[in-house]
Amino acid sequence: MRCLECDSQYVEKIGTIAITSDYVGDYRVENVKYFECPVCGRRLFPKETAIKISEKEKGIQRELIKKLPVGDFIPATKAAKVLGKSRQALHKNRRIRKGFVYFIERGGKRLYHKKSVEMFKQCGDGRFNLVDATKPRTIESVVTYYKETSEYLNTGIYADTPSYNWQRREIKGNPPTKYIQ
Length: 181
Ligand SMILES: [Zn+2]
What we know:
The protein is α+β, with helices and mostly antiparallel strands.
């Protein structure tokens, strides 16, 4: 088997693979078979390794979803309404079952993550970075400065002074990002 990148011969290896996922961060899968190009480092995973990687990521994903605030989840009836589906269709949807919408089980009932449902409705993928979302939120204030017209400076007494002044504004909490509101 030759490397698609540089045409060198792949070398079969058994070892630990480090993965960086957009959704669950960094993790490792140990003692698995893979092929590696000795020249450019490109790797190929045989099917059984790909399955192990996927299982590992799913496990981490489940644990991280459980750490999301329970108040951010909605019952199936509500989620179905948002998506314009029946409850049954929601439950059977293959992409949702695969984890494209985050959900938890509580008392035998499935609860769906509200933002995840909305993202899924928008683009068919309700996954977001769980590592950032489950990090403890630190409250820090962000100080910005903005220009504001000052009445006092507009009286004409100080004609040379610019008619605006820099004001300090303090915002509590982290500025919103794409995933954390
Ligand atoms: Zn190569």
